[in-house]
Structures are given as structure tokens and as C-alpha cells.
Amino acid sequence: MLPREDGQQLAYEHREGCEPGIVFLSGFNSNMQGDKASALDAWCADQGRQYTRFDYFGHGASSGAFEQGTVGRWIDDALAILDQVTEGPQLLVGSSMGGWIMLHLALARPQRACALVGIATATDFTQSLRNGLLGPEQMLQLELSGFCSIDNCYDDGEPYRISQQLLEEGAQHCLLERERIDIDLPVRLIHGQCDDDVPWQHSLTLAEKLGSADVEVHLVKAGDHRLSQPRDLQRLQRVIDDLLGELA
User: Would you say the pTM of this structure is higher than 0.90?
Assistant: First the structure.
């Protein structure tokens, strides 16, 4: 557990190994025990490579209530892990919301991030919720109670609770509205064209906004949002392995 200044604690797993290390940033309401995080853990163990995964505030084994979390809080959590747990240059791998957080880490710590790999990167997803993904009834719920519910379509769990605070605070961290995102690193973006949550075109928009000239977008025609099937995990490992080879 990594203690935070406000008394909260972040759960993490860290393995020492060769550099550059890999940091996995999970998605909204996901955790470090997911398929992609676990597959990368096993792959890095075989490679003898430093690897770090963790749970944001209110996620997984970390303390805090999920519905009290904000994008800014989760960015700060990721920075704390990067600064206090990892050593040396890091290749950042972000899934969905983790891809958005990954971009903020690269902006805040350009001397520590050496490359980025985004999986169905959900940049500015809170803005997408505000601009039409939430229906009239959900918007009314937000206005009346400060919370609304959205379906949890990936498991048998209860619907997600979305707070007005999450949407309003998230607007402070939006990146796609910028003319240029000043990240000059190798970037690989993997996106399924059957993604029902984050349209694959968002990765093309992000690629155009990034300052780096070394950006590739890998579209997976039959891929869904999670990209967690065995073939998807193998593809992710190949992309990372090729990128590490280029960095070397």
C-alpha cells in the first residue's frame, strides 16, 4: 500500500527488473487484476522487466469510495505511483480512461515517460458523457441528486454511479480541445472497430493532435472495447515488444 497525504492508500504491485519499466493504467471502474494487467505482468516476468500496476482511489483494493473519485484525483494517484514506486524510464500502457491518464503523466513527467501505448484510449470521456451519451432522464437525475446511473454491461455488477462532480471536474483535464498536445514520444494506439463505448475515430483524432511524429494507430476490425481476448493480448505484447526494440 502507498499512503497518500489525505490518509487514503493506493494498492499496487511492483516487480523490479530491467529498464525501461512498464506501468499499466487501468480503466474506469477497473482494477489491476484485469486480463490485460495480469497478462502484461506474466509477460514482464518472463522478460525480467520492471513492471508496475495499481488501483486508483476508490478502485479495486485501494481505499476510498468510487463515486467520490475524480479524473484529477486519479491523475494524482498515477503520478504518486510513478514518482514513489517506479525507477528510471517507463513505457506507459493505458486502457480506456487509463489512456487519458497516461497522456497527463507524459505531459507532467516528460523526463520519465519514454513511450506510450493506448488501448481504446478514452480521452475526455467525461465530456462525451456531458455532450450526449447521457440521456435526458440521467441528466435530470444529475441535476436533482448530483448522481445518475449508467449500465454496467461488462459483468453482473450494479450500474455505475456517475457524479456531477466527476463530469464538472473532468472538464478541467480535457485534451482534445487543444490545438496540439505537446507530447513528443513514440505513441502506439490500438482500437477495436467494434468498440461500442469509445468510437475508434477518437484514436485518429488523438493521433492528429499529438505533437509527436512517431505515432501509429492499429485498428482491429473485430475488436471490442476491452480487447482482452487471447489474440488481443498477444497483439498488445507484440506492439510493446516492437516498441521496446525501437527504443533500444
Answer: yes
